[in-house]
Amino acid sequence: MDNYQIVKRARIGVLIPSTNTGVEYDLQKFSLEGLTWHPSRFWIQIANWAGESERSGDDFNTVFERFLDALRDELPLSIRNVLSAEISHLMLGMSAETFWGGLEGNHAFEAGITEQIGDLGLTTGAAAARDALHKFGARRIAVITPYPQVGDDNVVRFFNDIGFEVKAIKGLARPSATAIAETTIPMVMDAVREIDGDDVDAIIQCGTNLSTVDIFPTMEHWLQKPLIPINIACIWHALRASGIDDKIIGKGRLLEEF
Questions:
Q1: What angle do helix axes 149-161 and 102-117 make, rounded to 10 degrees?
Q2: pLDDT tier at 215, thresholds 50, 70, 90
Q3: 14, 79 in Cβ contact below 8 A?
Q4: Distance, CA of 17 to CA of 78 (rounded, Å)
Q5: What are the angstrom distances between the C-alpha of 238 and each of 10, 53, 129, 143?
Q6: CA angle 106–109–112, rounded 5-degree value
Q7: Could you tell me where the DSSP H helices lie in the chain?
Q8: What is the C-alpha to C-alpha distance for residues 243 and 13, in angstroms, rounded to an integer?
Q9: Which of 66, 115, 181, 245 lies deepest, with the highest CB count within 10 Å?
Q10: C-alpha separations of 91 from 24, 46, 256 in Å
Q11: 3-state secondary structure of 154
Q12: Residue 12: closest CA among 31, 25, 1, 22
């Protein structure tokens, strides 16, 4: 294999909200021979949800839904830009929208992106989480999110639609898009303690700007069950879809075992 072929092992485009710093933090931990990540940012118009709620008088849930509505309009340009790099696969570095509207909403959202990217492979947070849970044979799950109640409701709806039983969910209701990345380790650990139980097969963390890759692999040993960060699920899904089967040690059981 010559050098040019090695470089072309996989070029994975990643759509990232303009406010997000968690996705790239996690991506930088995965430097594999012949793999390159190609982020493409899309503009986040409504970033301070608490501030917008106070300004407009709308409740937090309404503002969060308006944030997602504005986000949808920005995606096509970001996709156009990253496609110009002749990427081999597209990964979404955002997750709330992929759960919205349950399975029906997920299908519609993915169909809209597929219409633009054609036959190019696609990784979304919802699909990656589903496939990761299936690998572990989990049926009863608990979930941590940075979202307000409306976000949690849509996450539960999606997992219920595809046959999982959500035993507990903890929404941290972070006040802004950037505040998600400022969530502290004790906050995450307290949330894990709150939602875990003997009736929980696995724990999923949603929200791509909330990086848990530094603590979840250790907590898996502590709880003796899979703890799956959404970013790690997406990275795993994108790598395997790209034919990269490297087992990666130290970043959680998903990448070590499957």
A1: 90
A2: very high
A3: no
A4: 10
A5: 10, 36, 12, 22
A6: 150
A7: 3-7, 22-27, 49-56, 60-83, 96-99, 102-117, 125-136, 149-161, 185-195, 216-223, 230-241, 253-257
A8: 15
A9: 181
A10: 12, 23, 20
A11: helix
A12: 31
Q: 8 falls in which pLDDT band (50, 70, 90)?
A: confident
Tokens read off for 159: 């997992």
Give the model confidence (pLDDT) of 106-163 as tens digits: 999 999 999 999 999 999 999 999 999 999 999 999 999 999 999 999 999 999 999 9
Q: CA–CA separation, 38 vs 87, rounded Å?
A: 8
Write out the two tokens for 204.
């999923």
* Contact indicator for 183, 146 with CB cutoff of 8 Å: yes
| Residue 23 near residue 39 (C-beta atoms within 8 A) | yes
Edge-to-edge strands, sheet with 121-123:
35-42, 10-17, 89-92, 121-123
CB 227 within 8 A of CB 220: yes
Contacts with 43 (C-beta within 8 Å, 6 or more apart), sequence order: 18, 74
Contact 91, 12 (CB under 8 A): yes
- Count of CB atoms situated within 10 Å of the CB of 190: 13
SS3 170: strand
The phi, psi pair for 32, rounded to 5°, reads -110, 145
Asked whether the beta carbons of 167 and 141 are under 8 A apart, the reply is: yes
Neighbours of 126 (CB within 10 A): 30
